[in-house]
Each structure stands twice: as C-alpha cells, then as structure tokens.
Amino acid sequence: QVQLQQWGAGLLKPSETLSLTCAVYGGSFSDYYWSWIRQSPGKGLEWIGEINHSGDTNYNPSLKGRVTISVDTSKNQFSLKLTSVTAADTAVYFCAGGYTNVDGFDYWGQGTLVTVSS
Amino acid sequence: DIQLTQSPSFLSASVGDRVTITCRASQGISSYLAWYQQKPGKAPQLLIYAASTLQSGVPSRFSGSGSGTEFTLTISSLQPEDFATYYCQQLNSYPRTFGQGTKLEIK
User: Fold this and answer.
1) Which of B45, B55, B97 sits opposite A47 (nearest CB)?
2) Of A44, A50, A103, Cβ closest to residue B49
3) For residue A17, which of A67, A98, B32, B50 sits 20 to 30 Å off, Cα-Cα?
C-alpha cells in the first residue's frame, strides 16, 4: 500500500518561497506520476503540476513560471517550490500520485496548510 | 483551459435516496474524467476514473457514466458516510482542472 507523507513550512511572508516535500512509502516510486494540488476557499481545487520519476514535468500556466517540481528518486521523494508567494497562495497543499497520468490520483498526502501573511 | 461545471452545487438528500451529480466540460474530453469524494479536513479520495471505472475498494453503489462533454456520478442508495463534497476532474489535457464541487448534505 502506497502512503504519502508531506511536510514544509506553514507560515510565510509575502515574496518568500514556499517549499514542500512529499515522501512516498510502499509501492514502486518509478511506476507513478506525482502531483501537487492546492485547495483554497476561493478557488476550490487547483492542480499545480506533475512530475514522473525521470523528472519530466508539466505545470499549470496560471502560476506563471513561479513553480518548480523536482524529484529525488534515491529518497522516494518529490518536492514543490513556489516563489514570490502572496496572500493568494494561501491554501492547503496536497501531494498526490497516480499509476498513470490520465486516471486520477489514487494516493494523497495529508495536506499542509500554508498561510501567507505579513 | 477546460472548464468543468458541476450541478447542482448543493444537494440535500436522505439516507437511501438515489442521487445524481452532473459534470459538464467546456470541450470534449473523451472519457478522461475522474470523480473524488472529500470529507472535511481530509484529502480527496478517488472514486471513479476513466469516467466509469470504479476504483478498487469503492462501494458498488457508486457509478459513473458519460463521455465527451457530459458526465454523471450516481449513488444508488445513499449511506450516512456518503455525505461529503464531490469533485470531478478532467485529465484529457493540461492543465488538469477540477469542477467547483457538489456538497451533499443530509436532508
């Protein structure tokens, strides 16, 4: 059974960089596509981007080049960095994974509330 | 971006009822649609993928149908644990997008 555990700073100031990491336990890390999704009251669920074990990525253009997703296959981890955060980036951030990148996300992390406030 | 519109946004029903939630896409997405259930404070849980394939472990009272631009999620007989918020998601093109959600409440 695949389990995802995520962590990272929960309180940021405007212009800082959001950094979250998700560790994958169980299963075969290289068999899955790994994604980040966020949820805020105003915008619902928003897909941020995805990566595979080879490091191939797809990002949401709405984040205008501020996002980077990376993978560390030696640790079975993947990470999210979002630069120049504003209050609009306040949300619960989830990591998630799917066996394919077209059949939805089978596995989810527990979520991390990130608040951006001066 | 492909927009997904769910209807209704709120639904009040009773245990034992049959309910249907609709998800309409702004353009055709073949069968690349997933449905999720989310309870307060929890991550979404995958119910159905490829529009009509039941995820392993999900009760058979959940079913999905549709293709192209119109999709439905049906719960055949509501159970107390089914009261939650439901989301559709398209995986036909990037960026992946979600519907705005349907909150299913106890009548």
Assistant:
1) B97
2) A103
3) A98
